[in-house]
Amino acid sequence: MKEQILRYVSPEYPWADRFTFLPQVNSTNDYLKKLAAQGAPHGTVALSDHQTGGHGRRGRSFLSPPGVGLYLSILLRPGCPPTQLMHLTCAAGVAMCNAIEKSVGFRPGIKWTNDIVYEKRKLGGILTELRLNPQGLVDYAIVGIGINCCQNPQDFPPEIREVAGSLAMVTGQTVDRFRVAAAELDALYAMSRGLLEPEAMLTQYRKDCVTIGQEVSLVRGEEVRHGRALDVDAEGALVVQFADGHTEAVNSGEVSVRGMYGYV
Ligand code: BTN
Predict the structure, then answer these.
(1) Atom of ligand 1 nearest to the CA of 27
(2) Measured CA distances, 258 to 28, 112, 177 (Å)
(3) Residue 61, Cα to own-chain centre: how many angstroms?
(4) Residue 260 has pLDDT above 80, yes or no
């Protein structure tokens, strides 16, 4: 699969020799953590056809069956303080919208912060993990992305069948995973180059984010609060207005957001 994917990346893509394809792996994020500990460089990518232990945020599992999806992680070593990477998951979301638009022909939306969605169905998700060095700078960031490419509705288990989707379900056509994977590599390289100047990316994120303008439920442990999402701030936090009129910027590490009228 590696050669078929690299055939489609742009000639400027500089990290072809840092790209590994794994027919099966527990989790590409966990795999890259091990490589990172051995000193793997900025731009290292692991892509798998099948994860046996794919996971998402809050310890949830991410279904990663063979032959139908793309499960990819990239290792970044920007060497900056973590405060300069607060928007990293947003940047990866915009990169995935760019990649899907380029390779499949439609632009999905983003459910704040990390779900790639289209018409109330989740097409994929992003899991960002950081490790700091003893000086408090980012030793590495790993951005893991899972995209459902070729599934039909009956391929999803009944409990998520109403809310899960795939690129093929949106287009009604066969999806070429090699082209999607190559577009992901190009988009992530472009993302890495603009990482420390995020203004234009955030402007695009606000356009792609389907949560802005919606009534939302904010879940923090046992506590559930209702409000309206107004904006996404410069650090990628969701600005929410509550019934008494006051606003708060909520962080994705602290709360999860549910639409009040369905999954999105
Ligand atoms: C989520 O939906 O909460 C995020 C899902 C992230 C899944 C991707 S698939 C590649 C990488 N490896 C993992 O174990 N998780 C991420």
Answers:
(1) 14
(2) 27, 10, 30
(3) 15
(4) no
Q: 207: CA distance to ligand 1 center in Å?
A: 23
Give residue 51 CA to ligand 1 midpoint distance, Å: 10
How far apart CA 88 and CA 190 sit, in angstroms, is: 13
Cβ–ligand 1 contact at 28 (below 6 Å): yes
Q: Which two tokens stand for residue 24?
A: 């099966």
CB 103 within 8 A of CB 171: no
Tokens 């489609």 appear where? 8
For residue 113, cis peptide bond before it (omega within 30 degrees of 0): yes
Q: Would the pLDDT of 261 be above 60?
A: no
| Closest C-alpha to 53, from 76, 81, 33 | 33
| Rounded Cα distance, 23 and 40, in Å | 20
Q: Is 124 in the pocket of ligand 1 (CB under 6 A)?
A: no
Tell whether the model's pLDDT for residue 264 goes beyond 70. no
> Is 113 touching ligand 1 by the criterion CB < 6 Å?
no
CA 63 to ligand 1 center in whole angstroms:
9
Whether the CB-CB separation of 45 and 72 falls below 8 Å is answered with yes
| Model pTM above 0.90 | yes
Q: How far apart are CA 181 and CA 4, in angstroms?
A: 10
27 close to ligand 1 (CB < 6 Angstrom): yes
Give the SS3 label for residue 83: helix
Q: Does the structure show a pLDDT above 80 at 106?
A: yes
